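Example (one chain per record):
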Amino acid sequence: MVAEQTDVIVIGGGPAGSTAATMLARQGFAVTLLERERFPRDHVGESLLPASMPLLEALGVSETVAKAGFLKKYGATMVWGSDDQPWSWRFSETNRRYPHAYQVWRPQFDQILLDNTRASGVDVREGASVTRVIFEEDIAVGVQLEYAGGGSAELRSRHLVDASGQAGIIGHNLKLRENDPGFRNLAIYGYWEGAASLPEPDATNIFIEAYEHGWMWAIPLHTGVMSVGAVVDSKRGQDGIRAAGAPAFYTAQVESSAHTRGMVSHAQLVDGPFVIRDWSYTSTSVTGPGYVLCGDAACFIDPLFSTGVHLALSSGLMAAAYVTTALCNPALKDAAAASYTRLYMRQYSQFRDLARLFYSSNRAVDSIFWDVRRLTGDEARTPREAFVRATAGQSAQGYERVVLEHGALPEEFTEGVQSFESAWRERQKRADTLLATGQALTCIPSLHPGATLTQQAVLGEGAFVPGLMLSIPGRSEETPVSGFVARLVELIDGERNLAAIAAAIDPAADGARADKIAEMAANAAVILYVDGAIADLRYPG
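Predicted structure:
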């Protein structure tokens, strides 16, 4: 058998695979996408996040998605925390540019993305199942595949993207997958016709309800059906399904809820129920010789925050940048692999930690399910650190702010967050005053002990590029900085004021206009002060 040749093979045509393939084709690579099913195909995960809207713009499908008729999702309504009655929050409270997302019918949404991939010049082959990834000297060099209509082929490539979803072809083959012990849950879901919507103005919100055995979701769709699912403990779910069968177990979960059952009391179950097991996992490595993992093939987190599609789109875009770097700039490949891993796992960890925080805050229901998911004693420190990390130096807002308002968290945790926020507000207030009064340049900055600059690969336009990262003690995240900011940090010695430091910056070497250096130095310094990289901005004397 003579093997076909291509630059990049992408396994899987879901959001992660279609995104990676589209972005790689735009870089000029010959890309072949292999999808075992034929689209449109069924898939759960209908609720999008505002954070995904700019990614759809980058793919060039925003207008198509907007015209598809999907319901606009303006926020979330929940029965969660310390109150057994529904409460809501809206995206517009924290995201002015993207005040809504969409509730999408995945067969249609995924078809839009795959059609866009095909239109971008990718060789899309549906009904093509990868039976084996070919490794030579531990390097992924191609795949063997079988076509649904008959026949097989061998396809060779310079690089491979595994976006095969929970099937995780490479992850399973290389035993990279690790289950997440913090989220041993199972989901069972179905689609209802004639379900009642939430009252306005929340009619198109996702509805999430804590109940005795876990939590329910209800997502209205423009097709006239509602996606309704239950997330329960994995062992309890599997035992219950074996004992009673999936339909009876699913019906029992819906009937156990206080509010969701009312929404479907006059509705008809028209599809399902379906079961998904082993919801949360990570991979010990998401890159390797000749391959990269993205989307559910790499990691999957509990669906509480509707993060599945967002992580798929985001990781697909970053995976394309990594492959571009590996093929076009081999000297930067290892650094790009480290950065891809760091960026992917940072997103995953933030969502995971916030989900853990949310689970631990619920007091609306008392049961074994919730008891084992609550935080006590020293364990509260980890979510506190996660909270601080997730807010990235900003005052808490959005989901995490609502947790504090409606949840019941350990006193140590709440006090820690309040202390953090109080300190942040004071620093922000002082920074605003320094800028407004023009006094920033007279201040003497002192770096936080241990703040360091390192050369790393940073995500650029379509590829990873050499860049500088600033690390701050106590912060697990590193921040990419411009050459100007890096030079500013290097010149801070705790003795000179900002005006003197600005005067020492070379406009030609550091990429700044001479007449703007002082203003840029003042603005950068107060941002670094609020963020914690600059420990103090003191007046002389």
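Caption: Residues 360 and 375 are 6 Å apart (CA to CA).
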